[in-house]
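forwarding from the other thread:

> can someone predict this with 6-O-alpha-D-glucopyranosyl-D-fructose?

sure thing
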Amino acid sequence: MTGAWWKEGVVYQIYPRSFLDSNGDGIGDLKGIIKKLDYIRDLGVDILWLNPVYASPNDDNGYDISDYQDIMNELGTMKDWENLLAGIHARDMRLIMDLVVNHTSDEHPWFLESRSSKDNMYRDYYIWRPGDGREPNNWVSYFSGSVWEYEEITGEYYLHLFTKKQPDLNWENPRVREDIYDMMRWWLNKGIDGFRMDVITMISKAPGLPSVEPVIPGVYVDGSRYYANGPRIHDYLKEMKRKALAGRDVMTVGEAPNVSPETALSYVGGEDPEMDMLFQFELMDLDRGPGGRFDSIPWKLTDMKRIIEKWQTTLHGKGWNSNYLMNHDQSRAVSRFGNDREYRVESAKLLATLTMTLEGTPYVYQGEEIGMTNAAFETIEDYRDVEILNHYREHIRQGKNEDDLLSGYRARGRDNSRTPMQWDSSPNGGFTSANPWIKVNPNYPEINVAADLASDYSIIRFYRNLIKLRKSSESLIYGRFQLLDRDNPHTFCYLREGRGGDYFIALNFSDTPREIEVDGKVEFSGECLLSNYTGPYSTTVDDPLRPWEARVYQGRRK
Ligand code: ISL
Ligand code: CA
């Protein structure tokens, strides 16, 4: 195989605060990551993505950056970071860094200048508007309330799509863009291998920043139609590619809420794509109800299959997918899409099989490889996420029921994936010797890396085998995806057809045995290559799939 390394590789995502604390302050850090590099390499992954490690007052855990060219004190020093990069490269892995340029921290020197007067060269680095005693428009912030914050010093409002400590940069200002490209080149010159671009599809706002009609005073609504995939987004990304990325062998993945497969092609399709791949959100919205971010509804396998099929087929041969079932903003995949009680191990492996056998680059989030489950938080005091805390304050003020709110956070809250990595059965799961910044899941004595590796049913070893299998086959990486059981509400069966032979994947997303039933005929040769059940089981296609069983066969359509 001779394609791009970022197509053939597997990404492992690290949330540094929650990975491993090396100095006993309760916060994961860079030295902690260095200690675990062999562990990560042994999984068979090729690329590490680090959530932001830059200097930050941590209003949003590092997504509010006060210095793009420095490391957050709590995480370590620039020297530690350099050692980390060297350790990654020494193991033949690559490093991609988070690029957060839709906004900075309000403590960034640019913003400190910008807010200080109306006539300084940084004023136009951000988006300021007069307001006549009322916000300039009615857009709602992702993290509650208006996107506008009034600033006394100059008597104007500034825009922030996220918290008020995350003012949006004004991309229309060419100086902002040049400064950002400079900063990107600086990191690339230090040897990094690419960027994960935070909410990159939101950097171009519609001229005039119009309100969404009808305007009801005091009510804020989703304004994304005026800033997601905005009018100049492609100009900016083309310029970024030309000025900061061209001529380098690096990968880019853009976070892209509000993007359909067709829109995705405008970013990742064509001769000279603006980015290599995108994180789509359609799968993550499967269980999202009409009541907003924390309204959780039952999801349907037929919807999951339809969405995956649409992305797989629309991008095939024209763009490149990224495949993830969770990250630091989502609840734990095994709790959300699997059965984290009776079939935790089986369903964790089934979900791994899905991610690793689709076309596109697979992403594994820390702890996914041991089947970590959602946080078991009981009170609001346990939560740390600014999105949840703001939401709680606002909704309690409106008289909402506390238990309802908590059950929403338990289902869909971001802290579910941010509890510390569970390494062993020692106190705090071996994450820290101190008080962790966020509670460790109380199930750490059973669910941890050491216990997994000691088990005959190890999820980690299953990942290793699965990653080996994926890499052994051109078809599993580049082959065409074909859905075989569109209307079956319990099983997900598909083919990957290509020059490396054809593969047939059968997944049972239910607690009861299910026959393999596919539309049309599939012809099989040889044995089942992989199953997530071990033991004296028969795995011919005539054997019903056991609960949450996943199998990979050699096979093709007749
Ligand atoms: O999913 C969303 C839309 O409902 C939002 O959560 C939003 O798209 C997402 O939170 C954006 O995430 C990224 O930018 C945020 C940061 O808090 C997240 O951690 C990051 O992944 C602001 O920088
Ligand atoms: Ca620490």
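The two ends are 27 Å apart (CA to CA). thats all i got for now
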